[in-house]
Amino acid sequence: MAEAGKSGGRNVYIVDGARTPYIRAQGVPGPFTASDLAVSAARPLLVRQPFSPDRFDEVIVGNILSSPDEVNVARVVSQRLGCGVAVPAWTVQRNCGSGMQAIDCGYRNILSGRAELVLAGGVEAMSHAPLLFSTAMATWLGKLNGARDLPSRLRVLARFRPALLKPVIALLRGLTDPVVGMNMGQTAEELAFSFGVSREAMDSYAVASHLRMSSAQAESRLDEIEPLYDHNGNYYDHDDGVRPDSSVEKLARLKPVFDRSFGMVTAGNSSQITDGAAWVILAGDEAVKQYGLPVIGRIVDTEWSGLAPQQMGLGPVHAMTPVMQRQKINLDDLEYFEINEAFAAQVLACIAAWRDIAYCREELHLTGAMGEINHERLNVDGGAIAVGHPVGSSGARIVLHLCHVLAQKQARRGMAAICIGGGQGGAMLIERD
Question: 83, 96, 105, 360: which one is catalytic?
């Protein structure tokens, strides 16, 4: 990685961005498809730019649960936005880190001189996750389709059983690691046990997330949000999963979801299933100068890490640490942090891991403990527990929001990081000049 995010003297800037409100899933497909969400967030963003959409060198979108109608959703979105047929568009998939991966891809292409203007972000319509036929049902349908005469068809029909109609829920399957057979909530339980994170601590953290996000809404500090309008004329202008009346007492009544006998991870101290999109516009020095673009942040460094799938929630620790080592900074040098809140247990475990001398020595190969994150500088406007975690979008949201936090607080440096299903982590160091 080139020092300070430069290659041949190049800089990569975030010059603007926008996102939709995050809409909580209600058990049925929501009012917007993935491309609807992405287009709705991008249109006002592009309208206010001094260049036309066809000036982008590429459009990159992170997305996981792609629809059969929008397999390469980036291309669908770019065409709907009027970027033109000559602008290439591609979709990336790194589970929960997909939105950040899209930004990183654009960053690296600008850094290398292969691009100058990139529209990058992430989108997920989790409420539209498909219901699938099982392998047994697909086999039965295949044999029925292959039967060439009436007796053969009747023999296949005779083997039909109602149990074949039981659907496979793609969302649940996708949130389960096939290598270790654990879903994401179970990995959070593992971390809570390993680092002694209590149920009360999880619930307290979750309440703080809701209250911080509620304050940000009340004080109009979420100006990156662009409102949505559905086909029935309904208006969406805020993240609707935020609960300003949340309390530890209320959350304490909820039962564990992933380990019903001994667990502590509940729906209340976990991120919510939501639909949403987030974008940033990336630009190099030439584009900033040519169009007179404002700069809301500069990408200094990025990192992707791998670790055991059972401990995937510690991905931010494993990704942020190498960045700090390369840049010769420590936790105290970072003024603000955005760590995606997949689970309260996971964020609290990250904090505990950096305090743990043995973990830092054995897993991070440090000489001692990394230190302590100041809670007052971590997710200052709440996080995914309150706002939701549309998995393909969250990595882009936290990068965009970090830029806004740095501006609002008149701060210089911050880090966005995310844990990734399957045992990975991503981190992005942002500076504001």
Answer: 96
Q: Are 321 and 359 in contact (CB under 8 A)?
A: no
In Å, the largest CA–CA distance within the chain is 77
Is the pLDDT assigned to residue 6 strictly greater than 70? no
* Mean of the per-residue pLDDT values of the chain: 95
Q: Among the listed ranges 27-36, 113-122, 127-136, 212-221, which one has the minimum average pLDDT value?
A: 127-136
Q: What is the domain partition of the chain in residue ranges?
A: 134-169, 182-220+300-431
Q: How many residues does the chain have?
A: 433
Q: What percent of the chain has pLDDT over 90?
A: 89
Amino acid at 292: G
What integer pLDDT is reported at residue 190 of this predicted model? 95
Query: Is 419 one of the annotated active-site residues of the chain?
Result: yes
pTM over 0.85: yes
Whole-angstrom Cα distance, residue 348 to residue 341? 10
From the list 83, 350, 360, 419, the catalytic residue is: 419
96 is catalytic: yes
Q: Which two tokens stand for residue 125?
A: 């319509």
Supply 390's token pair: 């549309």
Give pLDDT, residue 68: 86
pLDDT tens string 327-384: 999 999 999 999 999 999 999 999 999 999 999 999 999 999 999 999 999 999 999 9
Q: How far lies 129's CA from each of 60, 126, 171, 239, 323, in Å? A: 21, 5, 6, 20, 35
Buried b (16+ CB within 10 A) or exposed e, 208-232: bbbbbbbebbeeebbebbbebeeee
**Which CATH topology does 182-220+300-431 take?**
Peroxisomal Thiolase; Chain A, domain 1 (3.40.47)
